[in-house]
Amino acid sequence: MITISNLAIQFGKRVLYKDVNVKFTNGNIYGVIGANGAGKSTLLKAISGELEPNKGTVTLGPGERLSVLSQDHFKFDEFTVLDTVLMGHTVLWQIMQEKNALYMKEDFSDEDGIKVAELEEKFAELDGYNAESDAAQLLSGLGIKEALHYKYMKELSGKEKVRVMLAQALFGNPDNLLLDEPTNDLDLETVVWLEEYLANFEHTVLVVSHDRHFLDSVCTHTLDIDFGKVNLFAGNYSFWYESSQLALRQAQNAKAKAEEKKKELEEFIRRFSANVAKSKQTTSRKKMLEKLNVEEIKPSSRKYPGIIFQMDREPGNQILEVSGLKSVTEDGTVLFDNVNFQVEKNDKIVFLSRNPKAMTSLFQIINGEEKAAAGSFNWGVTITTAYLPVDNTKYFNSTLNLVDWLSQYGEGNEVTMKGFLGRMLFSGEEILKEVNVLSGGEKMRCMIARMQLKNANCLILDTPTNHLDLESIQAFNNNLKLYKGNVLFSSHDHEFIQTVANRIIELTPNGIIDKMMDYDDYITDDHIKELRAKMYGDTEN
């Protein structure tokens, strides 16, 4: 249990929030949401004690332990992987160190013997004799094979370190758990493992994430940080979003009677609760909406960007034909080979691969930015494309302001360009900033504005949710569902894929898997799991 009382945090004159009073209780998982810069990670730092609030207190239940997902991936480079995980339980680790130091003494005294006996008793109470096997089990669940358990952290790749740090946070069944972006750099199988792990976690969890599917799968409550206010709501992210949008529409409808509004809200709760009850997700077990009432549903003051893709012309029957494409990296790694497919009208295709470089290479090839090792491709004469690359660095090596920068990519006067920037939430003096000082999220919003200028009938999107906040991701997702042209994209956002794609093409070193089916079905189908293992040349599901 975590109790926050009268908390206030500000940096200089900027007040993030004040008078925060909230209690997080056992058995619940709280998704912390808010626009970029709202103070989500700052709140977790205040709870962990890493940051001292300007006012107020944070207290845990008596004798409770707090565990935090570390963001410092180099801190433990001189320790083994297994020891790094064990260090997640600081009390147990200290006992182990004290105990081992005493046993190594050459002049072991009777007093040392008494002290060791006391330490052994505490060690047993903390289930220390099973600690290494428990840590190893966590590591294996997170995809860290046994051969790596006794290697030093400095020998691991960045993605492997991320998983070890997650194992460290989870180790020892902490009473309170703080997770800041825990799904970053995790593959699909590991994210599913984490969802199931948290489904059986009986203590208190606060999680910051931009992965809406993950938030929906694990969260029982939503903590919304919005314009200096911190508000707690029952329900997962989708419930918060849909209910706040419904309440906003009601607030804008002045003619509707109070009784009609209440009835509509109650019907919404009933329908959402029924869907949750049918699902296999954590939220159904936790009964997140059990005590919800209509008074808890409020409109959000959050602003969503206006991401609206339109087409100048309808695409013809020939969209894109790809024949025998092959891509090889400079070190000789085959990213994909023997890639043959034809894009049909209305196709919205997600491209998958175990190696994310494969999708980037394919997109660069069909955009003429990279030469294939073999094969060819041919666009239809009616097709116009707009491309969102995963790396946009080269576009922002400039001292132009936002208006002048955007003007390079489309026709129209200054008012037109300001209109497109306004849609992406740039206003006032912001539009006069030089583009080389923009944040990652601001650059992505500029790139989306650039795409909208093209009015293309085929969008090519390489990991489009990178650096975007939840509001931008939601707006992007909503528009792509309605977009009438073709979409070719890659993504690590489960919800984005599930709601946009109607076709899946997986690129492997030995050809492709091409299926017209839902993403949820694709990742759970046993036949496809066997096929994937065969295509990658291993036994991995």
Short structural summary:
The chain has 541 residues and is α/β, with parallel strands linked by helices. It has helices at residues 40-48, 81-86, 90-103, 110-125, 131-141, 158-170, 188-199, 212-218, 237-252, 258-278, 282-286, 356-366, 402-407, 414-423, 440-454, 470-482, 494-500, 519-524, 526-536; strands at residues 2-11, 14-24, 29-34, 55-60, 66-68, 176-180, 204-208, 221-226, 229-234, 320-328, 334-343, 348-352, 374-379, 385-388, 458-462, 486-490, 503-508, 511-515.
Radius of gyration: 26 Å
Report the strand count: 18
* Strand ordering within the main sheet: 5-6-7-3-8-9
Kindly report the average pLDDT value: 89
Please report the first level of CATH classification, the CATH class of the domain at 320-536: Alpha Beta
Q: Which CATH architecture of the domain at 320-536?
A: 3-Layer(aba) Sandwich
Give an overview in words:
- It is a single chain.
- This protein has 541 residues and is α/β, with parallel strands linked by helices.
- The protein contains 19 helices and 18 strands.
- It has helices at 40-48, 81-86, 90-103, 110-125, 131-141, 158-170, 188-199, 212-218, 237-252, 258-278, 282-286, 356-366, 402-407, 414-423, 440-454, 470-482, 494-500, 519-524, 526-536, and strands spanning 2-11, 14-24, 29-34, 55-60, 66-68, 176-180, 204-208, 221-226, 229-234, 320-328, 334-343, 348-352, 374-379, 385-388, 458-462, 486-490, 503-508, 511-515.
- A six-stranded mixed sheet has the order 5-6-7-3-8-9, sandwiched between helices.
- Strand 8 and strand 9 (229-234) form a beta hairpin.
- Helix 3 (90-103) packs antiparallel against helix 4 and helix 9 (237-252) packs antiparallel against helix 10 (258-278).
